[in-house]
Amino acid sequence: MNNIPQNVSPNASFAVTNPLLPLRAEDLSYAPDGLALLDKVSLQIAEGGISMILGPNGAGKSILMRILHGLIPASAGTVSWRGQTANREIRKRQAMVFQKPVLLRRSVTANLDHALNAAGVPRADRNRRATEALKEAGIAHLAARPARVLSGGEQQRLALARALSLQPDVLFLDEPTASLDPASTAAIEALVLAAERRGCKIVMISHDIHQARRLASEIIFMDRGRIAEQSAAAFFEAPSSAAARDYLAGRLHLPDGA
Amino acid sequence: MQDFAESFSLAFRLILSADADLAEIVLLSLKVSLSATLCACMIGMSLGAAIAIFRFPGRGVLLVLTNALMGLPPVVVGLAIYMLLSNAGPFGTFQLLYSPTAMIIAQTVLVTPIATALTRQVIADLHTEYDEQLRSLALGPFATLTTLLWDGRFSLITVALAGFGRAVAEVGAVIIVGGNINHVTRVMTTAIALETSKGDLALALALGLILIGISISVNAALMALKGTARRFAYE
Predict the structure, then answer these.
(1) Among A187, A184, A194, which Cα is nearest to A164's?
(2) What is the ipTM of this complex?
(3) What percent of chain B has pLDDT over 70?
(4) Which has fewest Cβ within 10 Å: A193, A194, A254, B151?
(5) Nearest CA in chain B to A69
(6) Which domains does chain B have, with CATH numbers?
(7) pLDDT, tens digit (0-9, with 9 covering 90-100), for B103-135
């Protein structure tokens, strides 16, 4: 039984039409130096809910996310947002949080201000939006502190607050809780769920199956540069691919060539 | 040994009495070297940052050239500037030879490669770290450049101080283009060379002590700055 809270079900609380979605990727390949890390991946991500990308290390999850977000170009294939090729405006309606938060050598508030300024938010609104985002992340009391002296959990909350202050339509999260303790993980998950409830589409990578069970409304399971299956959260009860069944059962396979 | 002690004593007396000639030389040195450092940093930091983050034809050549020019011999620079600024040179009409401006130009040429190469390294390291985040924010090239320069500010101040150290201690270029003219282009290093050759060791030593004092102050400032940057994790 999937234990996703009722209020995060993709269609239950979602009322706003997301202007960027559906996101469609067709035949995406990524093969730097001839090494195929992504092999003709096609998928569609619809609005609402949290799409969780699962899969073993080296499956191509982070590469797929970076291509979707426009950080690296695909060797072949196309990505479209509601039928449109990505442009600067579309990029500005997305945000991404990385596994290791990249924080500027500035104060907590200045980190948010920089991002809001880059997004073209008028100076008069920046302070208000930064304060709101920090309050929601529970780190308003750290506003004046240098960002890089915060603890790992606080840094990740700041990175998420910065991303959410941009009010993105799509938020990419690359293992945002990978190295965090349970309390920090819970704080991050609460923020993610709140953003999802506001209509922000979440596309998230995780290695934590329990977290995926808690949050996901859709699973995209990747293996060896391909999508092995894309299904609703019922995935956990009846995975259709052998790779996913092995992954969920904890059966270990050595990588090719090991 | 007695001469040495006497020179030291005279040097301290000159410093403590704030001797007018001494003060004039020190102030001109600071004015020339600070101006040259400022000019070199404006050129070198922009160029270094651009080389670090942009890809353009000739970038590799520029990179090799910049690194090679870090060890530029001052007398060669002095000679080249002399030829450019002399009456027969292309910039002779400006009548800049034997003026503090000529000295600033020479020192700028000497310090610019240092500022460029060190800045490139600082910004390249920072760019590697920030690249995905800044691209995720869809930042344009200019905004990327200014973000990196601002976030590298503590390291770049170190670059500026290293450049100033090179400029203020330099003698070969400024003596050629400045001519070491009393009350006009005489700076600490050229005065030390002159007074030593004349046998006036006291003034030479006083200037030497001030030069060392400036060097120690610059390094102390550098360490204090690094300490502050480290405390705030801004380094």
Answers:
(1) A194
(2) 0.87
(3) 98
(4) A254
(5) B136
(6) 2-231 (1.10.3720.10)
(7) 999 999 999 999 999 999 999 999 999 999 999
